[in-house]
Known about the structure:
Helix content is 48%, strand content 17%. Helix 3 links the parallel strand 2 and strand 3. Strands 1, 2, 3, 4, 5, 6, 7, 8 and 9 form a 9-stranded mixed β-sheet that branches. It is α/β, with parallel strands linked by helices.
Amino acid sequence: MTQPPPPTPAAAAAETAAVVIGRNEGERLIRCLRSLTGQVRQIIYVDSGSCDGSVEAARALGAEVVELDTSRPFTAARARNAGWAAVATGTEYVQFTDGDCEVVEGWIATAHTFMEANPQAAVVCGRRREQFPSASVYNRLCDAEWDTPIGPAKACGGDALMRLTALRDAGGYREELIAGEEPELCLRLRRAGWEIWRLDAEMTRHDARMLRFGQWWQRSRRAGHAFAEGAALHGASPERHWVTETRRALTWGAILPVSILIGAAFSVWVLLLALIYPAQLLRLVRRMGWERGAFTLLGKFPEAVGVLEYHLNRRRGRSRTLLEYK
Length: 326
C-alpha cells in the first residue's frame, strides 16, 4: 500500500460527488446532507417513496433529488445505481452513504488522497460508528459489527467511496438484491483485478434507532436472505461467496432444532443433543463476550428463516420485496 500525502480537501471536493439514499429518514437525512456540504462538488439524494417531506427537505438543502419510480420494487442497489447515473461529468469518485448516517468532516479528503495514491483501489471505506450505542443492546451489536479489520478487505458496507471508472466497468450494483449488494459488487470488482481497502479513519456515524427485539429479528432475517441469495449467485465460484454463512444459519437455526424435536418424538434421550447449544454458546462467549456471543447464536434462527424464505420464493418463481427493520 502506497502511503498517501496529507489530505487536500479542495482537490477532493472538486472530484467527488455524494449519493445519499433514503426513505422516511426525517431529521437524520437533514443531518446527513449537512455533513456533506463543502466536502463534495455535488450531492444527489435518491428517494424511495418517502412520505415525510424528505424530498422537499433535500431540495431545500441544495441536493439534487432523484425520485424512484414506484411501479418497480425498491432496493438500495437500485437507488444507488440511479444516484451514480446522475453524477456530473468530470467526477472521478462517488461517496455512497445511507440517509441515516452523517459523514465525518475530513473523511472525503482522506479517502480521495488514498485513492489518488493507490490507482488499483476501486473502493475505500473507513470506520462506521453507531451514534448512540448505549440506546439499546441492538445498537451496541451494530457498533460491534462495524468494527472490521483495517487493510485489504473483501467487501465494504453501504458507506464507501468508489472510483467511478471501476463502478462503470462492473456495471454497478445488482438491482434485484434486497440486501448484500455491496459484498456482491466488491466480489465482481476483485475478480476484475481491483482492490478494496478499509482505512483506520473515522468515516460515518450511523443512527440505527434499533430499539426493539422485532427490529433486530427482521434485520437478522434479511441477513439470512442475503446469505442465501449471495451463495446462489456465487457459491459455486472459487470465492464460495457466503456459502459458510448460509450453512451455519441452516445448521444452527433449522436442521439441528428440527432434528432434535423429531427425534424426541421417538426417544426423550434425543433431547440431550440440545446440550450442543449451551456448549456452542460458551464457545462464542469466550471469543466475543456474553452479549455478542448470545445474540450471534440466537441470530441463527432468524437467519435460517431468511435462507428458507429465499429458497421457497425461488422455487415459486417469486422475488422478495424490500425487507425493512425500521
